[in-house]
Design goal:
It is built from 2 helices and 2 strands. The protein has 91 residues and is mainly alpha-helical. A hairpin with a 2-residue loop joins strand 1 (50-53) and strand 2. It is elongated and about 70 Å long. The N and C termini lie far apart (48 Å).
């Protein structure tokens, strides 16, 4: 068991409010970093990647039937197939 300090309600409330201010600042900083990340410039993909599909090889546009496709780096999208597993994830 750890040795935690035991205090009265007023002292706890003051410590909690101090911590809450730090938490709010942390959230603001995280929001600012996320905004800056979204504003990073994009890189044009020059290479025509081909992907194996059930009915042969396809380009990325063919896979998505020419719908608009915006892609983030796999490290930034952990829910992207292959991003965490080391697979290609469509890279």
């Amino acid at each position: 068991m750890t040795d935690h300090q035991v205090v009265g309600r007023a002292e706890w409330q003051a410590a909690r409010e101090k911590l809450l201010q730090r938490e709010k600042e942390h959230t603001r900083m995280a929001d600012e970093l996320a905004r800056e990340r979204r504003e990073l410039p994009w890189v044009a993909i020059e290479k025509q990647y081909r992907f194996d599909a059930d009915d042969g090889t396809r380009t990325l546009a063919e896979l998505f039937r020419d719908r608009s496709l915006q892609r983030r780096a796999p490290g930034r999208c952990p829910d992207l197939p292959g991003a965490a597993s080391g697979g290609t994830g469509g890279n």
